[in-house]
Amino acid sequence: MCTVVGYVGNEYSRAFILESLSRLEYRGYDSAGLACLTSADNRLVYRKSQGSVADLARQCDNNPIDGYMGIGHTRWSTHGIPSEVNAHPHFDCQKKISLVHNGIIENYHVLKQQLLSEGHVFLSQTDSEVAVHLFEVLFSDTQDVKAAIISLVDKLQGAYSLLFLLEAYPDALIAVRKKSPLCIGIGTQEMFVASDVTAFAGRAEKVVFLPDESFAFVGKNSIELYDFSGKKLQPVAEDIDAMWIYQGKQGYEHFMLKEIYEQKKVLHSTIDFLRSINVRMWDHVGFTNEYIASIDHITFIGCGSSWNAAAIARYVFEKVCLIPASVILASEFRHQSLFVNQKNLYCFISQSGETADTLEALRLVNESSQITMAVTNVASSSMVREAQGFLLTQAQQEISVASTKAFSAQIGLLYLLAHRIAVTKGILPLDAMNTAFNDVMLAAEILEGSIEKYASKIVRELAPKYAHYKQFIFIGRHSSYSFALEAALKLKELSYIFVDCYPAGELKHGALALVDETIPVVVFSSLDVPVYRKLIANAQEVKARSGHLVVFAFEGQQELIDLADTVFIFPHVHPLLASLAYCGVMQFFVYHIAKCLNRPIDKPRNLAKSVTVE
Ligand code: M6R
Fold this sequence. Notes:
Blueprint (H helix, E strand, L loop, with lengths): L2 E7 L3 H11 L7 E7 L6 E7 L2 H10 L6 E7 L14 E2 L5 E9 L2 H10 L10 H15 L2 H11 L2 E9 L6 E6 L4 E4 L3 E5 L11 E4 L4 E5 L4 E5 L4 E2 L3 E3 L15 H7 L1 H14 L4 H5 L3 H6 L2 E6 L1 H18 L3 E5 H4 L10 E7 L5 H12 L3 E6 L5 H5 L2 E4 L12 H20 L7 H35 L4 E6 L2 H17 L2 E6 L16 E5 L4 H15 L4 E7 L3 H6 L2 E5 L7 H19 L18
Parallel strand pairs: 16-17, 16-18, 18-19, 19-20, 21-22, 21-23, 23-24, 24-25
Antiparallel strand pairs: 1-4, 1-10, 2-3, 2-4, 5-6, 6-7, 7-8, 8-12, 9-10, 9-11, 11-15, 12-13, 13-14
The site of 5-amino-5-deoxy-1-O-phosphono-D-mannitol (M6R) has 16 residues, from helix 10 and helix 16.
C-alpha cells in the first residue's frame, strides 16, 4: 500500500529516501513525495510528484532540496485521486509541520468538519491531511510534542503509521504506529524509519519493530519509545535477517516473466527446505507433535491469489489428512461468528505477510486464544511475528504485482504440509513424504516444460487473437474451479478484460444465457474421473450454444479435447497438483495477452503489491 520512510543522521537524507522509496515502490505507485529540514536553518522544504519515484527524483535533481532529516512517501490512493495535491507529505496551515501516512483514518470526515469550522485550510482530499491539522491544534495548545501525540492518537480512529517532521522540533522524527507496520533501522550515527525492513537492509544492522499502539522520537543516536498512554517502553533491537539484493530483470522484459520462469527453481527450493527440516518440522514451525496429531479441522484465511491457493489446498488437506478444511476470505472473516475450537488450526496464507485484511483476521483469532499459523514468503513480516507458528514459502522476493511464483510456492508447500500432517497423525507412513516430494518435482517439470511447448504458439497466434475479446467466462470443478478463479484474477488484473468465473455446474443456472461466439469459455479440466466426466457435459452445453471453447486438458482426455477451439494439453501429474501443471502456461498466456494490449504489466493500474489497508 503506501510506504513511509524517514532518515535522520549525518548524511543528506534525500539519497536514502529516494532509494528506499524505490525499493518499496511495489507497495503503491500513484504518486511520491518527500520533505526535509534544510541543514542551514531547519526550514521545512518539500517536493511532490504525481507518478513514480523516478519522476520525484528527476524533480529533485532539477530543483534540489536536502537536509539531515527527512521523510518520504509513495501513495496508493484511498481518499482522493492520484494527483500532486493529494501526494504526501501533507502540512499544517503554516507549512511548519509535515506528515506522511500509511493506513486509513476512519473518522477523518468528522475531524475534518470540526477543523474546517475552526478555520483550517485543507488542500487535499485525503484522510491523512486531518492528522497534521489536528496535530497543529494539539501542539499549539500544549507546546509539548509528546502530549500532543498522546492526545492525537486518542482522537484518531483507524490504522496508521505516521511520520512527522516539524520545524519546531529539529532533533528527532516522530514515528507513530497503530496497526500499520513501522520499524526503525539502527545505523552508526544514523537512524532509518520505514514501513518495511527491506528499505534499510544493508544499511542498518539492527531493527526495532514498533509495537502496536506506540510512538517514538527518533534522533540520529537515540530512540525514545512510548505506548499510547505515554508510558516509556524499552526498544527491543533485533538482528536484521532481510536482505536487499537488487533484482534486475535479468534480461527479461518484465519482472512477471522472470518470475514465471523461476517457478521450477522455487518448487525445488521448497522441497529442499522441507527436506532439511523434515524430522524437526513441528519444532521449526512452532508446534508440538501432539498438537498437530490432535488437529481435527483446518481453517485457511487469505486474500486474492493466496486465498485461491488455500482453496486449492483445501482439497489436498481433506483427501490426505482426512479432516475437514474451510477457506475464508480474510476481508469477510471479521463479519462471521468465531467458534472456539482448540483442535482447529487457523492457517493464514499471505505472500507479503502484511496484507491488512489477513493480519486483522489473524489478530482476531489470536485474541480468541486459538492456534494460528502463518504461511508467508517474508521472514520479517508482521504475520511471522504475530502468529504462533509459521512456515516460509521459498519463492524469494516477488516484485511483479501479479502473483506467480509465490502462488505456485504456496500450492507446493501446502501440498507437502498436508502430507507432513498426515504422517504425524499416523495416516501416512514417513516415506510418503518422498512420494509427495516426487509429485511436486514432476509437477514443476511439467509447469516449465509446458511453457516451452506452447510459448511460440501463444506469442505468435493465441495471445494476439484472444487479446481482441472483450470478455471471458472461466469454468472448472472441484480444485480446477479454484484454479479457474486464480486464472480469472490474473487475466483481470493484467489485461483489464472482464472475466466471470463459475463452478462449471452452475453455468446452466443462469450464466449460460451469456454464451455465444463472442465470449470464449475457458475450461480447466481435472484428472479426477467423475469430475472430468461432468466437465465434458458442461463443455458440450457451451458448444451446443455456439460457444467458443478454450480448454486446458490432460493427455488422453480426447472427448474434451475434441470439443475445443483452442486446447492446451498437459502430461499427467498427481490429480491434486493439476493447478501446478497448468499455472505456467496460464500465466504465460495471460502475460502475453496483457502485452498485446500494451498494459503496464508489473504495475497494473489501481493496484499495489502489498495491501496494507482493510
Ligand atoms: O501478500 P498477500 O499474498 O497477502 O496478497 C494477497 C493479494 O493481495 C494478492 O494475492 C493479489 O491478489 C495479487 N495481486 C494477485 O495476483
